[in-house]
Structures are given as structure tokens and as C-alpha cells.
Amino acid sequence: MDVPTSRSADNGSSRGEDGWFGSRTRPPSGPGGGAPDARGPGAVPVSHASPDAVLVRRTMAELRSVADEVTSYFYALLFVRCPDLRALFPPAMDVQRDRLFRALLTAVEHADDTSALADHFGRLGRGHRKYGTRPEHYPAVGECLIGALRRFAASVWDAETEAAWVRAYTKISQVMIDAAAADELIAPAWWHAEIVSHELRTPDVAVLTVRPDRPYPFLAGQYAALETPWWPRIWRHYSFASAPRSDGLLTFHVKAISAGWVSRALVHRAGPGHVLRLGPPTGSMTVDPAADGGLVCVAGGTGIAPIRALVEDLAERAARRPVEVFYGARTQRDLYDIDTLLGLQRAHPWLEVRPVIDRDGRPQLPHALRTFGPWDAHEAYVSGPPAMIRSGVDALRGIGVPPERIRHDAVEELVTAGH
Ligand SMILES: NC(=O)C1=CN([C@@H]2O[C@H](COP(=O)(O)OP(=O)(O)OC[C@H]3O[C@@H](n4cnc5c(N)ncnc54)[C@H](O)[C@@H]3O)[C@@H](O)[C@H]2O)C=CC1
Description:
By secondary structure, the chain is α/β, with parallel strands linked by helices. 36% of the residues lie in helices and 16% in strands. It has helices spanning 51-63, 67-81, 94-109, 114-127, 138-152, 159-184, 261-268, 304-316, 338-347, 365-371, 386-398, and strands at 191-202, 205-212, 223-227, 235-239, 250-255, 275-278, 295-300, 323-329, 351-357, 379-383, 406-407. A six-stranded antiparallel beta sheet has the order 4-3-6-1-2-5. The chain has a five-stranded parallel beta sheet with strand order 9-8-7-10-11, with helices on both faces. Helix 8 (304-316) links the parallel strand 7 (295-300) and strand 8 (323-329). Helix 1 (51-63) runs antiparallel to helix 3 and helix 10 packs parallel to helix 11. 51% of the residues are buried. The model is unreliable at 1-12, 15-44 and 415-419 (pLDDT under 50). The site of 1,4-dihydronicotinamide adenine dinucleotide (NAI) has 30 residues, from helix 8, strand 8, helix 10 and helix 11. 1,4-dihydronicotinamide adenine dinucleotide binds at residues 9, 12-15, 239, 255, 300-303, 305-306, 328-330, 334, 358, 363, 365-366, 383-385, 387-388, 391, 408-409, 414.
């Protein structure tokens, strides 16, 4: 079982990985909202919560200050009891530990919301296929999890609490197992993807184009996990930087970050002929084909990747919806994809691209958003570093864009973990 925690962004257009219980969904607290409390802001109020939900929330409230110890203990227990499972995990477990706790928080937040649980953990179950997770692994994981919770939440732990956790875990693991089984009938656990071109756009940003070994259906705005041959079992998420193409090729923008094992390998080591592993497409930062209003897109750095894919997609569908793209970068040189964007702008009168460069080291994107506009009738798409997403979302909300019209990937999944 894989419990979602934080997403380690390794690269530019990446957002971390999903390990056991790792995921990349919209954060329960919403952008800029900080960490959810043990109950979660979107959760059913305690007064209406089921008895099981009250008990699991009480446990999590007790564990918040010792999250690291709980997760370390859990994995230690798991690997001692089931040494064979160690091979399913990456060598370094720091990101993993964080992801486990986040998954627990998600489970707690949605304890009484069967459809949210099915959605979140179904996605997680499908995503776990690429790690080699099997149904028979879940009972051992559950026992170790409950062992860890029992130990660290001793002051509130009793037979009823344990029974509530067993029921919650059983429900979640069944959702994951069922989703993986259903997915197995229609899709591979992973794809092999050969690099067919590798272009260094700046000293630390590369544009990679890969050819999957089988058809790879996805939507513009989505992302996938990638594993390199040099760092087995370390998966990092990268957004597709182009809309689906007739030749089946996929493009990613990767920025090498100093402690990013995967991103550095992809930028400085990878080249044509190398074969990557590619997880299934995921993410909900997509465009509703039935909608017809304007779009305001806010991209920072390699966050331009999914925005460019969305623009290409709209162009291919001849949507003719007004689209404004704010493309932020620290320096002119960092606007590595501006020529393509400006080319799209010339070809499509409905598209406006506005480069926004930092001034005296200070980000200008929020200010630019406030200066132009209004955006209150637009759908907003925000993509880039977590701090930029937070401030971009704040700026948009501040000028009247309702939260349900703002799309972005999960902020905590973007947090750099340094691999
Ligand atoms: N779907 C998504 O959200 C995607 C996210 N990413 C993430 O984007 C990031 C890109 O990194 P870099 O290219 O190094 O970006 P960067 O650090 O060079 O920043 C890019 C832009 O974001 C702005 N920015 C940074 N902090 C800000 C803040 N607090 N408020 C307002 N604006 C701010 C900068 O001013 C600059 O314009 C990575 O963390 C990557 O994981 C990449 C692709 C897709």
C-alpha cells in the first residue's frame, strides 16, 4: 500500500513521484491553504461524522506532531516483517515517508465520502501497478500500519479505534486492489519510452521527446511518472509539454535541480536511444471540451509545459476560445519556450502570450495578473513552482475568480524533496 504524502518535484515540468501511497491530486485544503488539519477543511463536520471517522480523526490529530516517527517506524516494521517488499521501494525513503502520511490524511479527510475515497484511492491503486504492487501485499502493509498507529497514538488507542482503522484500511485497500485489477484489463502497468530527441534549451533545461512502445492515450494538461535507467524505482512526475500527436510521440520539459537525481540524469545524461519507463497519464488540469469561455493560464518556468499542451490542444480542436498566457521566468534566458509560444500566438488570433520577467529578483506574475484582466469570467490554469501556484491562486481569487474555476496540480506534490 502506498500512502500519499508529499510530491517531490525533481525537475522543471515535474512534480515528484507517487510511491507507495504517493499521489498527485488536488490538495484537500486547496492552494495556499496550508496543510489540512487532521480532519481536513473539506471534511464532514465532526458533529455529522460517522463514529469511525471520529476515531480515525482523533488518531491522526494525536499523530500530527510525530508524523516522521510514525512513518519511519511503519516502514521499518514492514521491511523487517516482509523483506521482499523492500525491492518495491526506492533506495532512499524520505519522500516515501512523507507520502504515507499524506495518504493517511487524505483517508481521514474523506473518511465518510465514499465517492471521494474511490476516486482518490482508485487512482492510487492504478498508479501502484508500476511499482509491482500485488493484492497479497496489502494485508501485511495494513498490519504494520496499524502497529505503527497503535504505538504512536497509544494515549487514544483502544479496541474501538483499532476496529475503526481496520475497517478504514480494508475499505481503502479494496478500492486500490479493485482499481488496479480493472486497469490491468485495459492498460499496461507502465510503458517503455525511447528518447528520440534531447535538446538542451538552457544549461539546465532539456526538452525530451520520447516514443512509447505502445499507444499512450492522454489528455493535454496531464502528467505522468518517469523512471530513468540510472535511478531504478525512483519515479518523478512530468507534465506532457504537447497535446496528443498523430505520431504518438510525447514531449517533456525537464529542469535539472541541484539535488534532483532524476532531473539531472534526464538533462545531463540522457540522450537518444535511452529507454525510460513511463507510468500512466494522470491529472485533472484539463480543458472541458464542452465549455466555451476564456482561459487565463499562469505558468512559471517549466510550468509552461502543460500550458503549452493545453494551447496546442485548443488550437487543434479549433476551439477559438480566448486564451491569455502569462509566462513567468526569472530572467529572459529562462523563457526557454517563448519562441514556440509566440509562434502559436501569431497563428491564432484568440491567443495572447505575455512574458513576465522577475524584477530585481522579485516575482511579477501576481502583479501582472492584477494589471490585466478582469478574469472573473475565465477558467484559470496555474502551473509552476508551489510558491508561484499559491501566490497566483491568491491573486486570481483576490480579483474575483471563484475557486472552482481555478485549476492546478496539488501544491504539496510539487514540493521539492531533492532527489
Ligand atoms: N503542473 C504544474 O504545476 C507544473 C509544475 N512544475 C513545477 O514548476 C517548477 C518550475 O521550476 P523553475 O523553472 O525552476 O521555476 P523558477 O523557480 O525559475 O520560477 C519560475 C517563475 O515562477 C515565479 N515564482 C517563483 N516563486 C514565486 C512566488 N512566490 N510568487 C510568484 N511567482 C513566483 C518566478 O518569478 C518565475 O517567474 C518546478 O517546481 C516544477 O516542479 C512544472 C511543470 C508543471
